[in-house]
Amino acid sequence: MAMAAVLAGCGSDSGAGGGRTLTAYVYGDDAVKVQQAAVDDFNKSSDVKVKLVSVPGAEYVNKLRTAMGSPNAPDIFFNWGGGSIKPYVDAGQIVDLSPYFEKDEILRRGFLPSVVEAGSLDGKVYGVPMRGMQPVMLFYNKTLFAENGLQPPKTWDDLQKAINTFKAKKITPFALGGTDAWTQLMWLEYLLDRIGGADVFKKIRHGDSSGWGDPAVLEAAQKVKELIDDGAFGKNFNSVSYAGGGAPALFAQGRAAMHLMGSWEYSTQLGKAPDFVKKDLGWTAFPTVAGGTGDPNSVVGNPTNYWSINARTKHKDAAIDFLKTMASKEYSQALVAGGDIPTTANASQLLEKSPNPEFAAFQYEMVQLAPSFTLSWDQALEANKATPMLTEINKLFAGKSTPEQFVAALKALK
Hints:
Layout: H1 2-11, E1 21-28, H2 32-43, E2 49-56, H3 57-68, E3 76-79, H4 86-90, H5 98-103, H6 105-110, H7 113-118, E4 128-129, E5 134-141, H8 142-147, H9 156-168, E6 172-175, H10 181-196, H11 198-205, H12 215-229, H13 246-252, E7 256-262, H14 265-272, H15 274-279, E8 281-284, E9 299-302, E10 306-309, H16 316-324, H17 329-337, H18 357-368, E11 373-375, H19 377-380, H20 383-397, H21 403-411
Parallel strand pairs: 1-2, 1-3, 6-7, 9-11
Antiparallel strand pairs: 3-10, 4-10, 5-7, 5-8, 5-9
Helix pairs in contact: 10-11, 10-12, 10-20, 12-21, 20-21
């Protein structure tokens, strides 16, 4: 794919951005209305107009891949950073935005540094944040905790105490949608971060598969096995679905006391169990692990989505101008009104108008204070590594491999 893209780039004079128009591909979902409004506003004063192309979510990745290998590639395109753009970076198809971030005040100071860094590759900036943040956090049932004299866990020992307490009351400590491997991935992401620090996965993300052999990876896998053996996820978690609503339902019904999930769990529960949200839903950061070297303020999850610029565009300056509008107060206000938490440096001033200001402020401060924000592994890695990695994670949780076998399999990924 990368070679085809390079050849297409060399063989076409038309390239991206023919005429006086910038074509922008965006993932087609409910949030598109915010991007369309930004485009409409930009076009009022720009000589070069932006044309937004909303691509249905299920088709987005394949359509972008095909387009980037053709003469009709978009000038600007939505992505997840990390592994999602690595083939295009390797093929020289994306503008390195680092010089613009260094010299432009709006870009340099407009966004939370941890979010900009999370979407970068090899120390170079290739994307401008353009949607809300989605950190993974620990949700808990406030009523169940209060009834059992427990506080939200801050340490691993606190977590173990909560697990034992709820097991004794015949309450599953953690809801887990084990049929969806990405829900299991969250546990390994945070455990590795807390035990070994963010640099362990950073090494892996940059292409060094030997990083999977770091002792912290094995320790994280061993802790997962301990949780499973202790019954932290119950007995049937491998047949419970998150996408089908099984895990959120267990949590909302009080049959599970906690749920490690992305911040979208709030809106999921609000839509399905609003009374639970109002009365019982609490949230906190992932606990520390004794002896771990990771920063307790570090975060994992989906920092945000990004706009990147095609290196073949004929209107790079106009494209940069459009991307700078993502730092504007007006754009941030539109995200907040839609229930998102912007990644702009000034967003804290706007969160009082969020559907839940308390939850919004917690998220924002969580990310603002984070020295690192590790992108979800399945998005940070290229598909040829992410897919087998998820398979191995699922095998570990299903008891079909040992922690040692898990590490060996990941080290073999090339």
